[in-house]
Amino acid sequence: MAHPAKNGELIKVPNTLKVKIGGQMAKVDMAAIAKAEAALASLSSNFDDWISDEVTKLEAARRQVGEDKLSGLAGKQLFNCAHDLKGLGTTYGFPIVTQIADSLSKITQTQELREQAPLFLVDAHVDTIRAAVKSNIRNVDHPVGKILIAELRNKTQDFLDTL
User: Fold this and answer.
1) Which domain holds residue 102?
2) For residue 151, what is the domain's CATH number?
3) Separation of alpha carbons 125 and 46, rounded Å
């Protein structure tokens, strides 16, 4: 099992992953994938309404933060809304919202971060998400969207670098 090497010993570890996952994986069922894609497509007419509902929840959480402070329960709710939008943005046809919500999630993901996060930066993220949805700016390649994402990421990184 062990083989001498020039500057050390090479140890070959047995591959136990197959045993842990139960052997070979089954072939992908393309019919099941097609069925899931068709189901998703049939729901797509609701996506604009659903993302608007999610943005409304985010805005409500931001208003509550104004009363309870970002470090309280309202801050946690704001993070949850941002995290939801991070996951739902692309699904609902707004990859730009996924990118912005990801940035917002980074500055609100823990109690310690929320205690120090500047509200102007939180507001900039919330306002940008609202504007993207309201103006139907969906793609990260949109000229204005691209600039906004870059600026939010830079400001977010500046904040994280100060910690």
Assistant:
1) 46-161
2) 1.20.120
3) 24
